[in-house]
Amino acid sequence: MAVIIKKNEFSANQECYTPKEPILEMIDTWKRLYSKEAIIWCPFDTKDSNFVIELQKHFKVVYSHVNDGKDFFSYQPEKWDIIISNPPFQNKRLLLERVLSFNKPFWLLYGCSIFNNNGMANVLNRCGFTFIYKPIKFINGKKFLCCWVSNI
User: Fold this and answer.
1) What is the pLDDT of residues 27-58, one digit of tens each?
2) Residue 143 φ/ψ, nearest 5 degrees
3) Contacts of residue 94, Cβ cutoff 8 Å, sequence gap at least 6
4) Which of 51, 96, 88 is nearest to 71 (CA)?
């Protein structure tokens, strides 16, 4: 089942722009795990995203965003090796199922509320977690306890 999020359906409530700190805290881990030649896809990001800005300092990065007509459920770049990003709040289960279907490494920043969703259990059982011990204050001012969901 294809899920298409149209530009005009993508609300501000789904966007929590990530500050640099949680990305910078993981850079050394990602540098140990992946070659600098690895191509990271940031599928929910624009060129101004802190993910794109910080990851480009260490890796090759491609990015896409629904506002640019590149919906994650129907688009993927020609070449990429790893997904790293902060996905939108809606369609969490479908999004993780698609990410897992690629059989490639991924790291997605999610609010810990993801564990309160009974429908997520089967998908989350196939993932690993790296918990962040203090709430992240996102650029829109909201604070959440978060974790990295990955298949590592």
Assistant:
1) 999 999 999 999 999 999 999 999 999 999 99
2) -120, 135
3) 1, 3, 73
4) 88
